[in-house]
Amino acid sequence: MTGGVLIPLLQTVVTSATPLLFAALGELVAERSGVLNLGVEGMMLAGAVFGFAVMTATGSDTLALLAAAAAGTTLALLFGVLALTLAASQVATGLALTIFGTGLSTLIGARYTGRTVPPLPRLDVPGLSELPVIGPLLFRYDAMVYLSVASAFAIGWFLRRTRGGMVLRAVGESDVSAHSIGHPVIRIRYLAVLFGGAMAGLGGAYLSLAYTPLWAEQMTAGRGWIALALVVFAAWRPGRALMGAYLFGGITVLQLYLQGSGLVAIPTQILAMVPYIATIVVLTVISSASARSRLSAPACLGKTFRVAT
């Protein structure tokens, strides 16, 4: 593999990892508050289609990204009403949200199928973008790539160094205890879930506005589920989520490269399965009770909280 191939390949790994990182970070915050939202795939699709629709109508990158975040937040709010206010099963509600988001995106996106938009502009840093090797690897991406990395560090700082982050973690570890000392458990979980929806929406929008700047039905192709596995793989730590997103992004790009290069005599169908096989393996390995304990999963994850009357 020559340098002329390696650098574009690594650049593709970065862009492939970006939507995973957005979605995983949002879900990580929700899960640290004790909420398991399996609707990430649906929220990503909603963000992808609404972002693309607004971009097509207005030509504004900013408005498109805001619309995508709003779409993801709206679906997250629906989840919150059902799972937090009405105390419905979080697992069932999350699965229903994915089905709803998939159907909604198909309905709204029918008129946009096959259409393209200009990709998000790249930020060229004068003097740095022209550096050999380092320039194209670090300084030739759109703003969303840098925002995703900055978000990982910001969320890590928030969870570990701020009072708000400690309260959120306390709610996820022992909601009853947090409630007994006066913390509004439901309100905190709502905010965490809404943040997760906005991040999933941005992750979906990155697919339709930058990674492949077009709309195609179910274009997330299971990335929402990979993001869910990535949260557990990262042991609910933003720094590990950052590394895991690039690892899974690399696996995705590698199988595409192997399919196109013909270097290995493996059927393309098997190569296409590699990212999802990796996801299943990760979830299988960490599914045991002992593994969950070592990974320090939030103690109240997925448990319904009701205020005693």
Automatic annotation (TrEMBL):
InterPro entries: ABC_transp_permease (IPR001851)
GO CC, alphabetical: plasma membrane
Topology term for the membrane: Multi-pass membrane protein
Gene Ontology molecular function, alphabetical: transmembrane transporter activity
Keywords: Cell membrane, Membrane, Transmembrane, Transmembrane helix
Transmembrane stretches, start-end: 6-26, 38-57, 63-84, 91-113, 133-159, 190-209, 215-234, 241-258, 264-286
Subcellular localization, as worded in the UniProt entry: Cell membrane
Highest taxon above the source species: Bacteria
CDD domains noted in UniProt: TM_PBP1_transp_TpRbsC_like
Protein name in the entry: ABC transporter amino acid permease
Organism the protein comes from: Acidisphaera rubrifaciens HS-AP3
Species lineage: Bacteria, Pseudomonadati, Pseudomonadota, Alphaproteobacteria, Acetobacterales
